[in-house]
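BUG: 3D viewer hangs when loading the predicted structure for this chain

Environment: internal workstation, default settings.
Expected: structure renders.
Actual: progress bar stalls at 90%.

Input used:
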Amino acid sequence: QVQLVESGGGLVQAGGSLRLSCAASGRPFSSYGLGWFRQAPGKEREFVAHISVSGSRTAYGVSVKDRFIISRDNAKNTVSLQMNSLKPEDTAVYYCARRRTPYMVADYSRQGEYDTWGQGTQVTVSS
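Structure tokens produced before the viewer hung:
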């Protein structure tokens, strides 16, 4: 069974950058697409980014497109989220997640398409 553990969250000023990492233990990892989601206080969890098995295909939520970059290292069983030009509205708990179905690419923004979630890491952006 795969377990996911996020790290790298913290407090940063608006305009700054943070890099989140998610380490997977157990197998399999490299056969599944991976995603990042976030949940701000009082709001629903929202899709942030998705990366395909090979890393060749990525997708982003509208609010983070052109600022965030998702990447993965299958040899190290990790997925990362580079967050640039951070805004106060990016403040949230960030979660990494593994797709339910191997090699699936479609419907990447739907939470139901993921069956394994990390515990989350807090990101706070001050104005």
